[in-house]
Every structure is written in structure tokens, then in C-alpha cells.
Amino acid sequence: MSNRVVAITGGNSGIGLAISECFLRNGYNVAIFAQSFERMQNVQKKFPANTLIFSGDVSSTTDLQQFYQQCNERWGGIDIVIANAGVAIPENIYNVSEESFDKSININFKGVFFTVQTSLSFLNEQASIILISSIQAQRGAGIWSVYGATKAAVRSLARSFAQALGDKGIRVNAISPGVTETPILNKFGFEKENLTTILQQVTANTPLGRIGQPKEIAEAALFLASESASFITGADLQVDGGLAQI
Ligand SMILES: NC(=O)c1ccc[n+]([C@@H]2O[C@H](COP(=O)([O-])OP(=O)(O)OC[C@H]3O[C@@H](n4cnc5c(N)ncnc54)[C@H](OP(=O)(O)O)[C@@H]3O)[C@@H](O)[C@H]2O)c1
């Protein structure tokens, strides 16, 4: 469907980049909000007529409001909001600092809440909102206590927002990716051999026998944003090769 407008946070890397490019290839206009301007420019160079880029911090409501203002001035309303920006900081209970706790909460939970709240006055009718959670929302792991809790909060927001916005025809759904090959894996700070061992364990425990690719999450987002998903709201679409389903 062409001419519809997507606003996505974190649309310059990994899953968000794949989502941005997937919607652009399918004829949507895409507004990207992230911190690295250079990586957003790389997308804009490929699709100059249909891309808007804005550098900001998702934990700042001022930045988010300015972003939506620019989208509105350019395209006159937004059809799809995708709250994707996130960080994953692996730390066990003994090592979590107040600073890293606040960082995770501010980006992954507060950021998602206000990505949606600040968009509301700019949404067109029948808008679709997609929140990127994680299968870690429903699993336990010593190093992911804070991250998992933020992602459980995101899953919860999809339920409450769906209830709150349903009377306006606005659908709100979550996507929970399994382990997906993106730059986030190299931000964990694991030794290369340890990361390889962890990914081998994940692969062995996944029914489809591999980790996911960002474009596979993007296809799920494209479906949830489309008319094909017109009666789906409050749901969590788990795109994980079966890892958390067995
Ligand atoms: N990859 C996985 O295995 C996996 C699994 C489950 C869920 N997820 C979730 O999927 C989402 C995308 O992750 P990814 O794997 O694609 O990681 P990624 O490649 O590291 O991308 C993270 C994105 O978030 C943006 N971001 C981070 N902090 C921000 C801030 N303060 N303000 C604005 N943007 C910010 C980054 O932009 P800048 O670099 O410009 O700051 C980047 O675009 C995250 O919510 C993550 O938790 C990933």
C-alpha cells in the first residue's frame, strides 16, 4: 500500500533498519528516529523521496514531539508507529548499577511509552502501532533480569494501549523476536568465543535450528501494519523459530 506513513524509532540498525527498508520497498513513506545521523543518512540515500530522518534520544519527550511535528509537516499525519529502539545490557543481579538500570528503563520502557503517547495527536484513522518486545519478556535468565522486565513491560503496554485506543480503530500489537542476527549481539561485551558458544546453544534449542534474520521480523511488522491484520490487536506475535514456544 503506497503513501502510508510509518514512524519508527531505531530504524537505522538491525531489526529497525530491516523494517525501514522493508516498508520503503513496499511503497510506504518512512520517518526514522535514532541517534546516529550517519546511519540514517545511508537509508535516506537509497530512498531519498520517501525518507525523513531525525536525530534524537527516545527517552526525551521533547525530541519525540519535534520528530512527530516534522512528520506531520512533511506528510500530514502518521499511519503506523513502530517503537523499536532498545538496548540490551547483560548484567547479573550483583552487578547491575543504578546507572545501567535507569538507562534500560529510560530507553526500553519510558521510551516506548512516550513514543506512543506523543504520537497520538498525529495519528490518522485506522492507525497501527507495533511495539518491539522480546521472547525474554516471558523467560528468566540471570543476566537479563532488567532487560527481560523492560520487555515484559512493553508486552503489557500492548495490551493496555489496545484497550485504550480500540474505540478509535487504532490497533496495538507487540512483536517478540527471538535471537536475531543484528549489531546488538556485539554490544553485549562478550568474548567472541563466549558469544559463539551462546549462539550455538540457542541454535540447538531452537526448533528451526538457527537464529533469526532481521528481515524475518520486518515481514511480521509489515503484516501487522497491513489490512490483513485488521482484526488483530493486543496480541504478541512471537517470531523466534520456536525457541520460546516449546
Ligand atoms: N537482536 C535480537 O536478538 C533481539 C531479540 C529480541 C528483541 N530485540 C529488540 O529489537 C529492537 C532492535 O534491536 P536490534 O537487535 O536491531 O539492535 P541494534 O542493531 O543495536 O539497534 C538498536 C536501535 O535502537 C536505537 N537506539 C538505542 N538507544 C536509543 C536512544 N536512546 N534513542 C534513540 N534510538 C536509540 C539505535 O539507534 P542508534 O544506534 O542511532 O542509537 C538502533 O537503531 C530492540 O528493542 C531489541 O531489544 C532484539
TrEMBL record:
This is SDR family oxidoreductase. InterPro entries: NAD(P)-bd_dom_sf, Sc_DH/Rdtase_CS, SDR_fam. It comes from the Bacteria. Keywords: Oxidoreductase. The keyword Oxidoreductase applies. Belongs to the short-chain dehydrogenases/reductases (SDR) family. Coiled coil: none annotated. SUPFAM superfamilies: NAD(P)-binding Rossmann-fold domains. PROSITE patterns: ADH_SHORT. The lineage of its organism: Bacteria, Pseudomonadati, Pseudomonadota, Gammaproteobacteria, Oceanospirillales. Pfam families: adh_short_C2.
